[in-house]
Amino acid sequence: MAFCVRLLEWIFFFYFFTHIPITLAIDLQALLPQWVYPSSLQDLLKWYATQFKDPMMLDPPAWFKSYIFCEALLQLPFFPVAAYAFYKGNCQWIRTPAIVYSTHVATTLVSILAHILFNDFSTSVYPGPSTMSQRLSLVALYAPYLLIPVMLLLAMLFSVKYNPVEEKKKKK
């Protein structure tokens, strides 16, 4: 059991650690002026958006910009803290912030995935997914950002290591 918990901690560490450069180099381009980013990163974003038919990154709707704003303001400062906690392991103080983070991200991802699956992208400035196969490919790219926070939430709620209530139940 301890091995499984430690494996989850390593997954969470990797998720938060890699999320820092992804947010800074890619996601924030939806908010910040183009001159902030070198042309190589702008080209990377354009390649991604074209290859995977993700118009939200090149022409983000206002609601999507609000999610990126929350990512920049609330989540980005949390990423190194969470990466440290899960790298070190056995940091029970991360429980409450991880619950807040994971519920926030899971909630936002549900609306993003619904938008990808059910929105009519024919009016988008940039081409969005037009077939179910393209929609599912884009969903597959966003899915880890739902699945890992849900795993994190469940671990924080039900793991004996992070939930003192569960630990007391097990001792009885």
TrEMBL record:
PROSITE patterns: EXPERA
Annotated EXPERA domain residues: 8-153
InterPro entries tied to this protein: EXPERA (IPR033118), Sigma-2_receptor-like (IPR051987), Sigma2_recept (IPR016964)
Transmembrane segments: 12-32, 66-87, 99-118, 138-162
Keyword Amino-acid biosynthesis annotated: no
UniProt KW DNA-binding keyword: no
Membrane topology: Multi-pass membrane protein
Pfam families the UniProt entry points to: EBP (PF05241)
PANTHER family, A to Z: SIGMA INTRACELLULAR RECEPTOR 2 (PTHR31204)
Similarity comment: Belongs to the TMEM97/sigma-2 receptor family.
Reported function: Sigma-2 receptor which contributes to ameliorate dysfunctional cellular processes and slow degenerative progression by regulating cell functions including cholesterol biosynthesis/trafficking, membrane trafficking, autophagy, lipid membrane-bound protein trafficking, and receptor stabilization at the cell surface. Forms a ternary complex with PGRMC1 receptor and low density lipoprotein receptor/LDLR at the plasma membrane, which increases LDLR-mediated LDL cholesterol internalization.
Protein name according to UniProt: Transmembrane protein 97
